[in-house]
Each structure stands twice: as structure tokens, then as C-alpha cells.
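Input C-alpha cells:
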């Protein structure tokens, strides 16, 4: 009787197989959240990227029109070798992650899914997830995309004060304060900003070129940004933006017939 709210029919893993079979006739879009278990400074839990990607995927599906896209169980582990000098970080290799994502994607295609939105909560998973997406597209010929904040980053960076706030800083501390304040130790929140006065090496510059570094060499605490500027209110605003923009994006994908997505050369 309470089934509708407690176990929404878009959550892949809690459906029975005949229910999935019926629903697949109506919906061909699935969201796959991917995260990481890695250090997030002395004040945030290790699961920020994993929890947030899962939360965003569910909120987006909930905000979509019926029939809502499927939401898959999240992939908790990611490519986090650059944080491995900090205890608690669990890292899987690029090869392991891409193989897993490829297998999940091929299996989804076999089930009848024609559009996969990989919702990535951890920036450094991006190259690996994009590689897997290409391989799924090559072999299953379905639409696969990877979203790592592109739909809303511009709005969020307009909102916050810190430049290069990329890890456990103003943004992630605010978004965690908004969802799980009991897990944030604000008295341990530190500020460590990156002094990158080169627009090409700047992580958040529009002209920034991708480069890679071990976090320990850039930050003593593991924070890259200004955690002390975080507030719950800011976090709520950021969540609203992310959910709204990502919902817009997923609706577009969901409502465009699969063959049209190709025709339009997206
Ligand atoms: Zn993070």
C-alpha cells in the first residue's frame, strides 16, 4: 500500500523482473551514478562524491515528468590514486572502472536501454568514464553520455567566492552541510587555496588544460578550496541549481527518440 513512495518505480534494483519488462516498454533512459571513496579533508566524510552522485540521480529522476528515467545502483569506487597518500581513500584502476562501466552499459543495452546518462560525482573519473562510454557506443550503438557537472558548473562558479574551489572546499562543504550536517566538522574545516596564476593550468579556467597531480603535493590538509566559507544556505542553492539543470538535460535526452539523437548528431 505504501509502495509508491517508499520504493519508486524508477529505481531499477527494487523492481521485479516482470515489472522492469513492462516499464522498459515505456522508458529507454537510465541514469548511472558514479562516485568515489576518498579523502575530503579533515572535516568531510569519505563518501561525498558517491553519496552526492546517488542523491542527485534520485532527485533528478523524481523531478522528471512521467515516465521517469530509471536510476541504477551507484558505483561507489573511483579513480582516486592521487588522494592515496591520505588514509581512507580506496582507489580502483582506470582499467577496472572502465571495464565495469562497459559491462554495465552492455548489459543495459541488452535489456533494451537505448540512452545512458552516466552521472559522475568525481571529476577524476571523467576520462575513464568517457572511454567506457565510447566503447559502449561503439559496440551497442546506443546513446551514452557522461555528465561531470557541465550542466551547472557555470552557475555554481558564479555563486561562490573561491577560485579553484575543486575539492572539499566551499562547494562540497556547503552541499554536504545542506544534506548531512551531522557529518561535517566545521571546527576542523580549513582553507587551502591553489595559487595557480596561469590561466592554462588553472583548474576552473575556461582555457584550462587538463593536468594531473598528487593532492598531497598541492595541499597539506587534502582541501583545495575555502571550506570555511561554506554554509548550509549556499549548499541548498547549489543543490537546487544542480537538480534543475540536470533534470532539464535528462528530460531532453529522455524525450528525444533514440534515432533522432543520432540524426541530430548529438
Ligand atoms: Zn568530492
Amino acid at each position: 500500500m505504501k509502495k509508491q513512495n517508499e520504493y519508486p518505480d524508477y529505481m531499477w534494483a527494487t523492481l521485479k523482473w516482470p515489472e522492469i519488462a513492462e516499464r522498459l516498454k515505456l522508458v529507454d533512459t537510465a541514469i548511472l551514478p558514479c562516485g568515489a571513496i576518498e579523502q575530503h579533508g579533515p572535516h568531510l566524510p569519505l563518501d561525498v562524491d558517491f553519496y552526492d552522485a546517488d542523491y542527485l540521480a534520485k532527485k533528478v529522476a523524481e523531478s522528471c515528468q512521467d515516465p521517469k528515467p530509471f536510476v541504477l545502483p551507484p558505483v561507489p569506487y573511483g579513480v582516486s590514486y592521487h588522494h592515496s597518500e591520505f588514509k581512507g581513500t580506496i582507489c580502483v584502476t582506470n582499467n577496472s572502472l572502465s571495464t565495469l562501466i562497459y559491462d554495465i552499459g552492455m548489459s543495459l543495452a541488452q535489456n533494451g536501454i537505448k540512452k545512458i546518462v552516466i552521472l559522475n560525482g568525481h571529476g577524476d573519473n571523467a576520462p575513464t568514464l568517457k572511454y567506457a562510454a565510447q566503447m559502449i557506443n561503439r559496440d551497442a550503438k546506443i546513446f551514452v553520455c557522461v555528465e561531470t557537472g557541465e550542466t551547472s558548473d557555470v552557475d555554481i562558479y558564479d555563486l561562490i567566492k573561491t577560485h579553484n574551489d575543486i575539492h572539499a572546499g566551499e562547494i562540497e562543504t556547503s552541499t554536504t552541510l545542506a544534506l548531512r550536517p551531522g557529518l561535517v566538522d566545521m571546527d576542523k574545516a580549513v582553507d587551502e587555496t591553489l595559487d595557480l596564476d596561469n590561466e592554462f593550468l588553472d583548474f576552473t579556467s575556461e582555457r584550462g588544460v587538463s593536468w594531473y597531480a598528487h593532492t598531497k603535493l598541492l595541499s597539506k590538509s587534502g582541501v583545495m578550496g575555502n571550506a570555511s566559507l561554506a554554509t548550509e544556505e549556499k549548499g541548498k542553492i547549489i543543490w537546487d541549481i544542480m537538480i534543475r539543470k540536470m533534470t532539464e538535460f535528462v528530460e531532453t535526452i529522455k524525450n528525444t527518440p533514440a534515432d533522432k539523437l543520432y540524426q541530430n548528431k548529438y
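Residues 40, 48-49, 167, 172 surround zinc ion (CB under 6 Å). The chain has one domain: 3-260.
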